[in-house]
């Protein structure tokens, strides 16, 4: 699954620079995650970096974008051109 930022977001700006895939951008009211770029940091880190740094715990899995580990790995390879 990709991740999603909920409306509990306080726009603290710490998640955006941590995303290795540049999937997080400022939205109209809160930050947003582009599910086509989110790999939950698979290929880069052991855990999603945005979740690790979020002070209000507002970045859960997105139930509307379920993906297996294999699908996330394939997305990483497509985005980076690197194999895992």
Automatic annotation (TrEMBL):
Residues covered by the 4Fe-4S ferredoxin-type domain: 1-29, 31-64
Cellular component, GO annotation: cytoplasm
Transmembrane segments: none
Cofactor: [4Fe-4S] cluster
Keywords recorded for this protein, A-Z: 4Fe-4S, Electron transport, Iron, Iron-sulfur, Metal-binding, Transport
GO molecular function: 4 iron, 4 sulfur cluster binding; metal ion binding
Record SUPFAM superfamilies: 4Fe-4S ferredoxins (SSF54862)
Gene3D superfamilies associated with the record: 3.30.70.20
Key word Metal-binding present: yes
Protein's recorded name: 4Fe-4S ferredoxin, iron sulfur binding protein
Organism: Oleispira antarctica RB-8
Lineage: Bacteria, Pseudomonadati, Pseudomonadota, Gammaproteobacteria, Oceanospirillales
């Amino acid at each position: 699954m990709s991740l999603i930022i909920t409306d509990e977001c306080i726009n603290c700006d710490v998640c955006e620079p941590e995303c290795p895939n540049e999937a997080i951008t400022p939205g109209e009211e809160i930050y947003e995650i582009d599910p086509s770029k989110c790999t939950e940091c698979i290929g880069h880190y052991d855990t999603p970096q945005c979740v690790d740094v979020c002070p209000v715990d507002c970045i859960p899995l997105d139930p509307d974008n379920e993906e297996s580990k294999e699908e996330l790995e394939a997305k990483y390879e497509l985005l980076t051109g690197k194999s895992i």
